[in-house]
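One-letter codes give the sequence; the fold follows as tokens. Both lines appear below.
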Amino acid sequence: MHAEIIAVGSELLLGQIVNTNARFLSRTLADMGINVYYHTVVGDNAGRLKAAIDIAESRAEMIIFTGGLGPTKDDLTKETIAAHLHRPLVTDDNAMASIEAYYKRVGRTMSENNRKQALVIEGSEVLENDHGMAPGMICSTENHIYMLFPGPPKEMEPMFLTYARPIIMNKLQVKEKIVSRVLRFFGIGESQLETEIDDLIDAQTNPTIAPLAGEGEVTLRITAKHQSEAAAMQLIDDTEKLILNRVGEYFYGYDETSLMSELSKLLKEKKLTIAAAESLTGGMFQKELTSIPGAGSLLMGGVVCYNPQVKQNVLHVKEETIAEQGVVSAECAKELAENVATLMNADIGISFTGVAGPEELEGKPAGTVFIGIKIKNQPTRVEELKLGGNRTLIRIRTVQYGCHYLLKSI
């Protein structure tokens, strides 16, 4: 079965809110074995919604609507669908009783337009709203299933999971599982990664392989379909082995993880502490690390050392190093990493110095970065980078590379 999700609301088109409902529904439907090939967003306009329904009917058996079930005049989803299906709207007594009980409970007078929220399409299966007022509904015809949900995620998600999902599963004749796994890579570009596994992508059937570019990294989503979840997982395992045999050196984690999350796990596993000296990153490394629970046992401390005097007076970078090599140099990065580890009594010291831009510094162009890493009982290493992008992107990628080098070194 193919599904299309239609989100209704001008606020989505204006960028006032993010359409998180589509993400939730796509993931949940995939787990149920239902393909979602299209997402549509349409404003609060009956004519444009009717046109979107016509298009959706030509390419999907299941059409899922979110939003437009409220009490105001611009909430017109069920009215438009009812007219499209040539069915009247009728009051659902249970929904009306629930709305009246709410107003009585909070001691407020119900405005007349709230009665509109209790209207449902005649002949539909009504879905209770345990977290709001407007009920959802499922309408079936010979060729299509229409599902209507309220827009607020706190109402839509539990309604779908509690009431809609069991109904859908009963309607499905084949209950396939769609299982996905995301592989995350850093230090390799999307085009290079795709080139390395081009033949695997060309030959894909089940599982499928989808490269996705992220912020400074690349991901591959492997998706398999099978009636047995265990069999689907085995298909994914086999494909993952083929991929990692070629580009495994750039792989760092699965699904929703991040470089910093993986670094945090590794530091905890190895019982290592860390300290940071940050110039161009301005504390970004420490901010990201401390956003992860348990960072208190890992981060001994750090210094934001934008000014050369702080590098010299607090972190004891030699005066001659700054005078002869400059603050944007491998020598400065080396001393910063070593000295911050000593100052903070940490197992690891990491330093970031360079040019975030947009102007040059010490004759070096924006994107010139040096990362120093001092690990207890190991020689200090310094990595030089030439990064592109704007000031913000250079800072973000600098921190990512710092995590990357640590993961490869510890």
Notes: The mean pLDDT is 94. The chain is about 40% helix and 25% strand.
